[in-house]
Amino acid sequence: MNLKKRPRRLRRSENIRNLVRETNLSAADFVKPLFVVNGENIKEEIPSMPDNYHLSLDQLEMEAERLLDLGIKAVILFGLPEYKDAEGSSAWQQDGIVQKAVRQLKNKFPEIFVITDLCLCQYTDHGHCGILEAGNIKNDATLSKLAKIAISYAEAGADMIAPSDMMDGRVAKIRQVLDQNGFKEVGIMSYSAKYHSAFYGPFRDAAHSAPGQGDRSSYQMDAANSDEALREMELDVEEGADIIMVKPALSYLDIIQKASDNFKLPIAAYNVSGEYAMVKAAAEKGWVDEKKVALEILTSIKRAGADIIITYWADSAVQWLNE
Ligand code: PBG
């Protein structure tokens, strides 16, 4: 028996545990997703995502102020448009809901870092992330639409564009049109390894973006694959992504770790709606302690290698960390 080595020495008190802790969470790690809607004085809780809301622009401003006070300086915006059509044209209108939200936020709080999710699914009447033709999602026809949306977001003042559609070649296309239109400093955070996941369920209720027919398996990645995630990330890096993302996070910690081991640029992880909702529901039943479980999940995502965590818990987590 060799008891010269006793790992428990480093766990004897709170002080020593704090000194040797390898992973620490802070407000600077988090990006808060926000859902913006037309109208006035709207702050409606999303039923499947408690403590998260549909916000009209006036309420968005108040929410941004609250987040900034907490030290959360980055948000990612999702819009619920006024209308939907086959090609998703409400996504690239100058006075579209996201464009208005970006303008208002950057005007009022120039210091807030505004990321816009870029996808067609909230804007198309069929709910798919691309142009639909005879049951197929047309990759190359979709790229020109994504390009238009990217320019309109950059024109509105977005700091970073986050394409989540999973079409091939979109990062290159978006980089090209941003540069051509004088937006060289606008970054791209690519949803590089975005899996075809049932964990997006609550979000699709929140964003009204569930596909009417079929599913997203012809463009989002198969949950069983990991080499493929590395190929997707490599392509996005080559195409000019500034940040690459793994999504969802919790069932894909191995992918986050591989991303961080293989690519020397910042790795984002999206702690998605289903990961949030299941803890909320269990906590409501008194079966788990929300605060402890949430902080454990967020810590695991960071420990796996994420530099940036997009999470609906951003504000709660900061409050808990400050307690
Ligand atoms: C849009 C998009 C989705 C999410 C982020 N951007 C939904 C989807 O792909 O169906 C999911 C976010 C979440 O579940 O929290 N394409």
Question: Can you walk me through this structure?
Answer:
With 323 residues, the protein is α/β, with parallel strands linked by helices. The chain has one domain: Aldolase class I (TIM Barrel). The protein has eleven helices and twelve strands. It has helices spanning 14-20, 57-70, 97-108, 139-156, 170-180, 201-207, 227-239, 253-262, 273-284, 290-304, 314-322; strands at 30-37, 43-46, 49-55, 74-80, 113-118, 131-133, 136-138, 160-163, 187-194, 243-247, 267-271, 308-311. It has an eight-stranded parallel beta barrel with strand order 1-4-5-8-9-10-11-12, surrounded by eight helices. It has a two-stranded antiparallel sheet with strand order 6-7. β2 and β3 form a beta hairpin. The radius of gyration is 20 Å and the shape is globular. Bound molecules: ligand PBG.
**Tally of contiguous helical segments:** 11
Radius of gyration, rounded? Answer: 20 Å
Tertiary shape? globular
Unique ligands: ligand PBG
Spans of at least 5 consecutive residues whose pLDDT stays below 50 are none
Examine the secondary-structure arrangement and name the CATH architecture: Alpha-Beta Barrel
Biggest sheet architecture: 8 strands, parallel, barrel
- Give me the CATH fold name: TIM Barrel
Order of helices and strands: HEEEHEHEEEHEHEHHEHEHHEH
According to CATH, the homologous superfamily is Aldolase class I
Report the structural category: alpha/beta
* Order of strands in the sheet with most strands: 1-4-5-8-9-10-11-12
Q: How many structural domains can be distinguished in the coordinates?
A: 1
Number of strands: 12
Spatial gap, N to C terminus:
43 Å
Binned, the helix content reads 25-40%
Query: What share of residues are in beta strands?
Result: 15-25%
Mean pLDDT: 97
CATH hierarchy, class? Alpha Beta
